[in-house]
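Protocol step 4 of 5: obtain the predicted structure for the target chain.
Materials: sequence only (see below). No template structures provided, no constraints applied. The aim of this step is simply to have a reference model before the mutagenesis design in step 5. Sequence pasted as it appears in the construct record:
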Amino acid sequence: MPAADAAHYELAFHVLPTVAEGEVTDVCTSLKSAIEKAGGTVTNEETPKRFDLAYEVIKYLEGRNRKFTSAYFGWVRFTLEPAKLAELTEIVEGESKLLRHLLIRLNKLEEANPFLFHEALTEDQVAAEQAEEVVEEVDGEDTAPADADKGGEEATDEVK
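Step 4 output (structure tokens):
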């Protein structure tokens, strides 16, 4: 496969939360195998981890609509000839353990700067916890006695 003909892609996916945690890596491995079978080369990936979804997702499974509020999220970056993309898409859409997926072509800037979702999520959680601690400290402080306020007002009046 000549490098000039290959394009860079990212396959982001949610694995169903009903899949056992130990089998989630098998789903990811099967997706990478499908990429390689189609003639692609995996260049980067983020291992799927479970997290709460921003909104409820409904998927038709086992004869009925099922609602999901969490899933395992991961992504795989790869190079592939654009002509082989249809073959890969067919395989990915046939994967029954995926809640949903998104396949995009990357530009040079996106290719050079992968966004590490789980790392960013952890950083946001740490920042939120630190902010909560600061709020608790401020809320937990004793308020100044009423006389202290009067002293402050008197001092202000004297300066005038």
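Step 4 remarks: The chain has a mean pLDDT of 81. The chain is about 45% helix and 35% strand.
Proceed to step 5.
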